[in-house]
Amino acid sequence: MHVHQVKTGMLWTQLRVPVQQASIALVQQTLRSFATTWSFSSARLDLMELAIEESFNTILQLIHGDINLGGGWAAAGEFEIHICIQNQTLQVRITDDDLPYDFAMLPQFTPSNLGQADADIRGLSVFLLQNIVDKVRVLPPSVHGQSLELEWQLPEADATMTSVTATEQSHGWQREDISLRGLQAADGIYVARLMHQNYGYTYVNSDLYIAEKIGQRSVDGRLYSHVAVTPDEELVGHCAIMKTSADADLLELGAAVVAPPYQGLGIFNRLWASLEQQLPQRSEKAVCVHAVSTHPYTQKIVLQHAYVMCALMLAYTPVSMQLKSVHTLQDAQRGSVFYCCKLLQPVAPMAVYLPESESKQLMAVAQQLGLPLLNQADADWVANSAHTELHYHVEASLNIAYLSVGHWCGDSLAEIHSVLRQLCRAHIDAVYALLDLSQADARLFYQDLTALGFISGGLMPYSPYPATLMLQYVNNQFLQEATVFAVGEAAEQIKHLVFAAYHQREGL
């Protein structure tokens, strides 16, 4: 734990404390000392202490359930407490690096509930916070973790705003003050800075750190962005539709970032919704989102916009890209993502050759998507090539590889094995094999891939084939099913099937 102060007058202070109930008293004492210098009354100081206690207990309950967090329980993470004077208010931000939480999971509480025998009072803490704090905000998860903000208006006698540093200065803009517009040529450098502010240098697409490349992608059709700006034209948010090439049939919606001081104003949702409104006018066939599984927030967004959970890509993101997660798993576990998709154009029925063990699940996902698949019976098939054709490319920033297979031959098993050994020796963490289910040899490739240790991940339409089956090989990566959040019945089913195969393959 450390407390750091700058300047006289207690403009801000910061603490790091273990995730334990025993930390509550220390935070309460620090806040009381800080607030006293700003002439808050004794009654308000008491309410501040109560707010800290209710905040801690609510977050701990949402993260860990009913387990005992007192006494000698070993903390699995830490809270960062930031107290500051800003915009004529005293603000307390509690940021956690443990599991994300969602206040929406708590039932709505009203005082009238107390008289009922079966009353559910789990929402009482939130109800109390809303009544003893001037403002309560739960900021969505970001690369900096997840934060709960408490805010009290300064007493009138001392309601003077003092700027701490240029990076912490805020003009107090409200949601309605933030406007959205398309990306302009001069915005590139500000988008690059915003990406670095949120991700460091860990974002998968390194082009988004270079203003010139952002401009090039915008000109050639690979990037279409909306940005959020304040009334004084400060760029505080970005979200984009991206393509691997100008003529690709698949769009990806992503690169959504919001400047940390402006999180909690609904900018993320507004940017996303503004791009969703553009999709019906696009000529591409489908749009996808890679929804992280370390927290449920993105998955909830995609479900609101009618995306279908199609596949689970294990070990997709390196540890450096993950949001703050369970402290004991940091530096030990890569992140997995759900591949979420929806069609933008009607698709004609297509003949496919589904592996028997996968057909039920694949047909169910295709039906949800509106992708008409006609599963064909086994037919006499003769190899029309002397050798199996394999193509792969490595995405160095993620340390993963994509393997495309074509023209099955009797040497398929040996050819795939040779490439897989090469990738494993290069310490590639995950290999994703993409099968074109419209080819009659898809079932033969499936047999060879599963014999080499690949497991199914699910259906990935237009990535790159209209009907793409993704199989995955996880190279010496330890994954825990409990750390993968799945929102909705479809995601839960995919998660169960993929991890059942993973456990069987790993002998767990």
Ordered list of secondary-structure elements with their pairings:
Layout: E1 4-5, E2 12-18, H1 23-36, H2 42-64, E3 78-86, E4 89-96, H3 124-132, E5 135-142, E6 145-153, E7 179-182, H4 188-199, H5 211-220, E8 223-229, E9 235-242, E10 250-258, H6 267-276, E11 286-292, H7 297-304, E12 308-317, E13 335-343, E14 350-352, H8 359-369, E15 373-375, E16 389-395, E17 400-406, H9 412-425, E18 430-436, H10 442-451, E19 455-459, E20 468-474, H11 489-506
Parallel strand pairs: 10-11, 14-15, 17-18
Antiparallel strand pairs: 1-2, 2-3, 3-4, 4-6, 5-6, 7-8, 8-9, 9-10, 11-13, 12-13, 16-17, 18-20, 19-20
Jot down its keywords.
disordered N terminus, single chain, 6-stranded antiparallel sheet, 11 helices, 20 strands, 508 residues, elongated, 27% helix, 7-stranded mixed sheet, alpha+beta
